[in-house]
Amino acid sequence: MRKPFSMFTRIFSHICKLKPYKETKWLMPNGNPIGVFVYNSVAEQKVPIILNDPKIATWYSCGPTVYDSAHIGHACCYVKLDIIQRILKNFFNIKLVTAMGITDIDDKIIKKAKETNMDYSSVAKQYEHEFWIDMTSLNIEKPMIVSRVSDHMLTIEKFIKTLLDLKQAYVTSDGSVYFDTSKFPLYGKFQQTHIMGDPTNELKKNKMDFAIWKGYKPSEPSWKTAWGEGRPGWHIECSAMVSKIFGSQLDFHAGGIDLKFPHHENEEAQSCAFHSTKQWANYWIHIGHMNMKETKMSKSLKNTISIPHLLEKYSANTFRMACLLSNYKHPIEYCDEMMDMAQDVVNKIKFFLNDVSFYVNSSDSTGLYNHKLMKNLQDVEEKNLEALKNDFDTPTCIHSMLSLIGNAHTVMKMDTTNFFPIPIVLIAEYVLDMLSKLGLELKDTSSKIISDSLIDTLVQFRHTVRSSALKTKNKELLAACDLVRDNMKAANVQINDSKTSSWVRIK
């Protein structure tokens, strides 16, 4: 059993190894550590997740610019974000309040509207609708709050007005508004900026300054403001919408690695300036690219694969498994070999679940208890929980479960003399529960593992063992009976004990 305060001892030990603030530019939040560590793009190392409320966290994801169909590069990003959110919710009991921004006003949308002779808003609505259909087909949970730029123009105007009042932004002769990076000393958290920027724009005071409002252009959508007519710049929208929803402090801000600079750099700068704080988002999570033959998948390179086309060949479970087999921040190279490997893993799990159903229902033998398998299950449960605490290490979890499945399969196939329904069923239920919590949909394909008759047999067997253990005061057997009860409860089967009997209640 883990010693009291060991989680805090581990966190304190980790904190002592962190780089100093001046080097990382990251401020450790005050509050409640939840025992989980995540790689922070500002700190450039794994840091402890510390929440103001120990059970509630805020999360914002940068959503799509809806000018075209989503491709599997987008799918990879959003599936991996969905996995992380499910881990926080399902394994660490965090009530995650999720929001996503939809960019429905943008240069690319206006360009597509002109090319197709459509209104820009019609283009945006068409591709946003398609986006949500794609996300549903991949079993990605929809965020609680969806914020569209077009619905928050007044919020954006007020945000920019505040930056102007703070002298943190300035209006140029064409009616645009730029954020003045020279007035913000903390600019450059994500990467060195002295070699970046656009030196050719003569309207800007500094080459790193960026537009938070674009001045009016004929034939483009525009809105009237106190400083002139125009439309929002790209970066300002997220800051304004997030600040409206979550206020001056955000726990998690997530998106693809391509958004790290300049989008997230600029978001953090203008939000810190607006709220007069040194740190706006506590944890930046960036998802690695999905590449095609070592090249970033992108529409501009014309090397994309649509999500419907993907699902014609592979299932949503297979694609999610491919994402689980890679750490979220690492790039993935899409190829048939990678997808076939993921498909093999999914098939191996499905075959195992079906084999378990056959195994527990086809034997005429009396069930026995296998301490070695039960210990193997307990070790994997503990190892996987630790892996998830360590930067959401899903590859370790999958490989641990495959090893556990292999051991269980060996017992089912090789030991024909003995019959071990209890540990085999509990292993199957653990694997099924674990993968379901990570977003795979396997229950319909696995059949019902535990039949009513098997439940009755298991409960009677456990009662006999427990009664004997109570008489002999065998603590090891009593602990084993408690473990069976607890694992069955996770499978929605509640076992209740009295001095003379045991009975079940199916939830």
Automatic annotation (TrEMBL):
Pfam families: tRNA-synt_1e (PF01406). GO terms for cellular component: cytoplasm. Residues 55-343 form the tRNA synthetases class I catalytic domain. Mitochondrial cysteine-specific aminoacyl-tRNA synthetase that catalyzes the ATP-dependent ligation of cysteine to tRNA(Cys). In addition to its role as an aminoacyl-tRNA synthetase, has also cysteine persulfide synthase activity. Produces reactive persulfide species such as cysteine persulfide (CysSSH) from substrate cysteine and mediate direct incorporation of CysSSH into proteins during translations, resulting in protein persulfides and polysulfides. CysSSHs behave as potent antioxidants and cellular protectants. GO terms for molecular function: ATP binding; cysteine-tRNA ligase activity; metal ion binding. The keyword Phosphoprotein does not apply. It comes from Pieris brassicae. This is cysteine--tRNA ligase.
